């Protein structure tokens, strides 16, 4: 079966893509408006794009009335945001912050979420997040109903017990991160793992040479 996206409506395309492109990491984005009002909201159209520069990308869709969501408005206006990663212990609080509240509503205060000041930017980071990345906007662009945000990571905060500072080894499993799955409210843990070795062309060529020829 195939679907020609040129004849589907946006909500139908969303249904297919969002249920198939899974699991998605969640950026729990903290921002501050030009009026100094704090905002927090989860965004799962999110990933790392590279490390030179250290780049993250987030897709922020517009509201049904065509206006920017608060996070997008704040990011465009102030060019600063924090990406907090979501551990299972923060899942309920993260979910609360997706509430469709007006801009003057401070989700962090209403959910009782503790924050810590950032080093280089105004938006605070979430204290209970195992990892928080202070980001400066490199570029935002609007494509249809989506604002794509490209941010450069300025500071990477990680809970001390989760990293070996000499080898820069992160204890990924101990972070207990959750990711977005399908439908209205499904999430997954990162506990069902398997490993694959990366192939090397040199090793592959050697193995081919060793085969008997006819
Ligand atoms: C786990 C999760 C992931 C989400 N991901 C996105 C996303 O990638 N893009 C988006 O526009 N909205 C996403 N949403 C919905 C926003 O969080 C929601 O619209 C929220 O009210 C936006 O808040 P803001 O106006 O304070 O920025 C997501 C919601 C949840 C619960």
TrEMBL record:
One Pfam family of this chain: Flavin_Reduct
SMART domains registered for this protein in UniProt: Flavin_Reduct
This protein's UniProt keywords: Flavoprotein, FMN
Protein's UniProt keywords contain Flavoprotein: yes
Residue stretches spanning the membrane: none
UniProt domain Flavin reductase like: residue ranges: 19-170
Molecular function as annotated in GO: FMN binding; oxidoreductase activity, acting on the CH-NH group of donors, NAD or NADP as acceptor
Cofactor: FMN
InterPro entries in the record: Flavin_Rdtase-like_dom, Split_barrel_FMN-bd
Cross-referenced PANTHER family: FLAVIN REDUCTASE LIKE DOMAIN-CONTAINING PROTEIN, FLAVOPROTEIN OXYGENASE
Similarity comment: Belongs to the flavoredoxin family.
Name of the protein this chain belongs to: Flavin reductase (DIM6/NTAB) family NADH-FMN oxidoreductase RutF
Organism, as annotated: Novosphingobium hassiacum
